[in-house]
Amino acid sequence: MIYPLLRKFFFALDAETAHGVGMAGIDFAKTTGIACLLARPVAPDPVQVMGLDFRNPVGLAAGLDKNGEHVDALAAQGFGFIEIGTVTPRAQPGNPKPRLFRIPEKQAIINRMGFNNDGVEKLLSNIAGSKFAREGGVLGINIGKNFDTPIEKAADDYLLCLDRVYSAASYVAVNISSPNTKNLRELQRDDALDALLGSLKAAQGRLADRHGRYVPLALKVAPDLEDAQIQAIAALLRQHRMDGVIATNTTLSRAGVEGLANAEQAGGLSGAPLLALSTSVIGKLAAALGGEVPIIGVGGIMNGEDAAAKIAAGASLVQFYTGFIYRGPELVGEAAAAIARQRTLHTPRRA
Q: Has 167 been annotated as catalytic?
């Protein structure tokens, strides 16, 4: 596979510039029919989660395709599902550049992007021409609030986005856990989360009636949670009958990267150093949820074994972003194969 050679080129560029070049390259590979040169085909491994049928349990996490400009090209890399966004009601530039930093010694990235995106209407326009969802692919749309919306009015932004993306999404992910929008993580606190989930579930019911179609809602949570917070969030997920939880977002911790170049940059840390922390949160959520709410595991997946560990901890599906940057498309098939092997080993034999 040619990705290790391409990565040398990308890593010689500024991280955000490399992102733009890389996404253009993925589009080119899809258009010219050479996507097969980037990775081997991924064997089908259908799984049903949140009432949706996934081609395989390995997905792309939000953040790589914020505006839904590359859905079909990314799907050609073998992902079982694609999550785009985070999208906000209005376009916003995000935080000042530079805002994306590699720590290659630890296969890590720090970002403080700040929900940079072109707004919900542009995202809908972009995905209107994509074939992935129309042909049965699962397309998640990750929604957030604008940076200048007061935290006490955050629900208004989430409700507006939910209303606009509902008909286009296979599921909607509610991002209250990015560390790069001021005060956003306050929405994870008991009273604020209770009110937000109540509003979202009521809107979901109205929209299901209007559109004649039920679109699942999943909550994306942070890895930097105390055990009591995890228990409280799990209780609210069950109480409000949420359809899924995505665990986890990036971390504010710098454990594992201390003293390295870029380690002190502000923002959320992703990649290999996040693996143990995010997997621990998955395990605690799984125990607290008792199987009532499915978990999408994300954070630190850099190889097939990491993906299988998420499933073993209690996740039903996995996602990655940073692993895709460091490993390329081959990670999709490797993760899918590892999960399939684990399921085979742990499926009870019939007498």
A: no
